[in-house]
Specification:
queuosine biosynthesis, TGT-like_sf, five-stranded parallel beta sheet, alpha/beta, 18% strand, TIM Barrel, tRNA processing
């Protein structure tokens, strides 16, 4: 992959970049819709590309390993061919999903053994095995196996977890050197900076990873219970250490406000289930604030959901009609709302890029945050 920083904001660490990947070009900062099992929930690929302007999506190694399984993915020719999504794709390692299996996992230096949430069957993920799985999936950007400690992890545990992640990274890097991509294009492995809420561990972890001269770097283990201010502080503290001309990916974050604040602190890439999950539950993110569409106040509101949206259903249907679909239990409600939220997130990124290029990102961010975070 090739990444170029094109414009830097004069008043923050925000920057616009251009990432060239085997399946296309991605302008940063960017939000990646989450397609855990090879599809973004309730959104067709055609809608995803045309209505939201999505250019890169995320898949999950843990879930895809369990369903549909590696044999099916490989026989199909990789996840791009299987899912028919032909744009860039990133897969995470499943480390966070394993972290969430408290009581059904066991960590050792060898790797992590866990019980499937589907049928209780036991598997072992090693750093080498995860690389092999992601070779079969075939994403443009892949993640090494890591451990994601909780936000309130004690210092000793966080330190041991970080050291475990670094040891697993070394083995993943070696496996990358000794294996070849299966589908005729290279894959980029992003090390994941861990260290919980401790700045010294985060810095030590990041500095240890610099020897790999990786094509990009991820920041993991945030938005897992720690206060938002700590997340911002950790991200900002990593700016001087992470290479300037490499993309920075903040994993699993977050709200529109989180995205803007972390762009200001030098982050280029984001993913989160929030747009689709909250959409399916009737929460809409808009430029005017956060809408609970199930609220009775929208019952006779016959204006378009969002006339400024890139999503065609937003301009076609009214707030009253969308509320009617939700209170009636219609599946179409979640589809429209999910599409709206993903479109809003991508519009937010596009506007952030525009403001960075104009040199007005910082003042724009400060002016827009009170509006988009208010409850309507």
């Amino acid at each position: 992959m090739l990444f170029t920083v094109e414009v830097a904001d004069p008043h923050s660490y925000a920057r616009c970049g251009r990432m060239v990947l085997p399946h296309g070009v991605v302008e940063t900062p960017i939000f990646m819709p989450v397609g855990t099992l090879g599809g973004v929930k309730a959104i067709l690929h055609s809608n995803l590309r045309q209505d939201t302007q999505a250019r890169i999506v995320l898949g999950n190694t843990y879930h895809l390993f369990l369903r549909p399984g590696l044999h099916t993915i490989r026989e199909a020719g990789g996840l791009h061919a299987f899912s028919t999504w032909q744009g860039p794709m990133l897969t995470d390692s499943g480390g966070f999903q394993v972290f969430s299996l408290a009581g059904r996992r066991k960590l050792t230096e060898a790797g992590v053994s866990f019980q499937s949430h589907i049928d209780g069957s036991t598997y072992l993920f090693t750093p080498e095995r995860v690389v092999d799985i992601e070779r079969i999936i075939g994403a443009d950007i892949i993640m090494p196996l890591d451990e994601c400690p909780p936000g309130d992890a004690p210092y000793g545990y966080a330190k041991e977890s970080m050291q475990l992640t670094l040891g697993w990274l070394e083995r993943a890097q070696r496996q990358m050197r000794y294996t070849q991509p299966l589908y005729g294009y290279s894959q980029a492995l992003f090390p994941i900076v861990q260290g919980a809420a401790y700045p010294d561990l985060r810095l030590r972890c990041a500095e240890s990873m610099m020897r790999y001269d990786a094509p990009g770097y991820a920041i993991g283990g945030l938005a897992v219970g720690e206060p938002t201010e700590i997340m911002y502080s950790i991200v900002e503290g990593l700016h001087p250490v992470l290479p300037y001309h490499r993309p920075r990916y903040l994993m699993g974050v977050g709200t529109p406000a989180n995205l803007l604040e972390c762009i200001a602190r030098g982050v280029d890439m984001f993913d989160c289930v929030m747009p689709t999950r909250n959409g399916r539950n009737g929460m809409l993110f808009t430029w005017k604030g956060v809408v609970n569409i199930k609220n009775r106040k929208w019952r006779n509101c016959f204006i378009p959901i969002d006339f400024s949206s890139t999503s065609r259903p937003d301009r076609q249907y009214t707030l009253a009609y969308l509320r009617h679909l939700f209170v009636s239990g219609e599946a179409l409600a979640g589809q429209i709302a999910s599409l709206h939220n993903v479109a809003f997130y991508l519009q937010l990124m596009a506007e952030a890029r525009r403001q960075i290029r104009m040199g007005t990102f910082s003042s724009w961010k400060d002016s827009v945050l009170p509006t988009i975070t208010q409850r309507l």
